[in-house]
Amino acid sequence: MKPPPFDYLRADSIDEALAALHQHGGDARVLAGGQSLVPMLNMRLTRPSVLVDIMRVASLGEITTQRNELIVGAAVRQATLQQRPGLANEVPLLAAALPWVGHWQTRARGTICGSAAHADPSAEIPLCLTALGGTIRLRSRRKRRTVPAETFFAGTMLIDKDDDEMIEAVTFPMRRPNTGYAFAEVGRRHGDFAMVACAAMVDVAGIRLAVGGVADRPTARAFPLLEGSALDDALNEFAWALEARDDLHATARYRRDLVRQLGRQVIEAARS
User: Fold this and answer.
1) Res. 1: pLDDT tops 80
2) How much is the pTM?
3) What does each C-alpha distance from 55 to 58, 170, 257 come to in angstroms?
């Protein structure tokens, strides 16, 4: 398979990248790691006239902290963040999820923001952003804006982003005191997209559980500190509310069972 013809622009600055997006609008695509975009080009699922490569923009490759948030630039590779010293203390949920993102070869090329932009409902990084209440920072020549993850992911590969905007960074809230975090997923093989993935946060105020791979986007729900049959009932209701469907990878019934079982597993792990 070969991609359709396109022009290639290697941007040396954010302004140059934004100018190209402003000029070409929906006919342009941002190229970072390319682990999602290039296969879509080869299958001709997308046909941009211009690819804007941002990987030479130094400021987009930075990881910084500010006001209890970890800020990850658009050119930060998944492997770079995974290897960050202290990540398990800063954002433990993200540290637990990153080894499940594809394989080490794809993490060496793929970017954190690229996964957010692709918005696969089974992907781990959008799930972590949703579970933690993270944000996506968008920028165009016209303005900057910040969108909460829960509204940014609008459906399967659908995001709240205008054609002339690019993702400049995503932010993950850092570890809160007296809070537990846990992540688990089930897939056909390690590195495949999850049939179901669950991420949990538990503190003295309650439980927050996010589920990926079932609905058309990662979905989070808050519960009080339930236990026993009350927790089982809440998980069962959540599993049905996600409206799972049969596909080539799993039946809807199996996915509901996984939500119940993995959900309880990660909640108990976070609680402990």
Assistant:
1) no
2) 0.95
3) 8, 16, 41
